[in-house]
Amino acid sequence: MPTINNSLGVVTEGVTTGVLSAENKDFYERTLLTRLVGSLKYAEYGEKKHMPKNEGDTINLRRINSLSLPTNPLTEGVTPDGNNMTITTLRATVEQYGDYCVITDKLDLMGIDPIITETVELLGEQAGELIDSVVRDIIYAGTSVQYAGGKADRASLTSADVITGTDIKKAVRTLRSNKAKPFSDGYFRIFVDPSVA
Fold first, then answer.
1. Within 100-183, where are the H helices?
2. Nearest to 88 by CA among 58, 64, 112
3. Can you give 81-117 as a three-state secondary structure string?
4. With a threshold of 0.90, does the pTM exceed it?
5. What does the radius of gyration of the chain's CA atoms come to, in whole angstroms?
6. CA nearest 34: which of 165, 125, 157?
7. How far, in Å, CA of 168 to CA of 147, rounded?
8. Helix-then-strand count for the chain, H and E
9. Cβ(97)–Cβ(126) under 8 Å?
10. Buried-most residue among 24, 108, 131, 166 (CB within 10 A)?
11. Sheet of strand 3-4: strand arrangement
12. 3-state secondary structure 39-58
């Protein structure tokens, strides 16, 4: 049975070393350090749709637009003109992304870290961040945009154009004017870069 004596010599199955080497003194923790994983923000608030198998790579989403309000009262005995419904079609194309890590059979057999588990977690983390960044890029490419200080576009912004409470109120007014529904807590959501916040 292995024993440790008082003089820091280690006796193991009849082999004695008087002084531990630097490698033997270090304790090796087999659990790898946790990576700093950012929280995913954008994809959480999107509407998710199921794409059936064998149906191509493009999905068409349709929305019936709201009707305009009638501006004149009814006249007795006269049938009103009525309204035509309009439909907005949105098209989305499925894209495929992928990556992998090279793990040799030797590393799998002889590595002292739980390399397969860590690799799977690493690829899962990468996939989540990828989905969030793709959703972010689509959101940022939208045309309903308001810039700080009432500027017309991103190119005209300067370092003096900082977001203010007035800009936030204007954005909320725009959302409400366009019949945007707040979340269940009664508030809208905003994504703000830490330097802006």
1. 105-110, 115-140, 165-177
2. 64
3. CCCCCCEEEEEEECCCCCCCCCCCHHHHHHCCCCHHH
4. no
5. 31
6. 125
7. 10
8. 4, 5
9. no
10. 131
11. 3-4, 10-12, 15-17
12. CCCCHHHCCCCCCCCCCCCE
- For strand 3-4 and strand 58-64, is the pairing parallel, antiparallel, or unpaired? unpaired
Distance from the first to the final alpha carbon of the chain: 61
List pLDDT tens digits, range 101-150: 888 887 777 776 777 778 888 888 888 888 889 888 988 888 888 888 88
Query: For residue 66, what are its two tokens?
Result: 């709201």
What are the pLDDT digits (tens) for 11-65?
Answer: 334 444 444 444 444 555 555 566 666 777 888 877 788 888 898 999 998 989 9
Contact yes or no for 59/51 (Cβ under 8 A): yes
The tokens of 12 are what? Answer: 């193991």
Query: How far is Cα 158 from Cα 154, in angstroms, rounded to an integer?
Result: 9
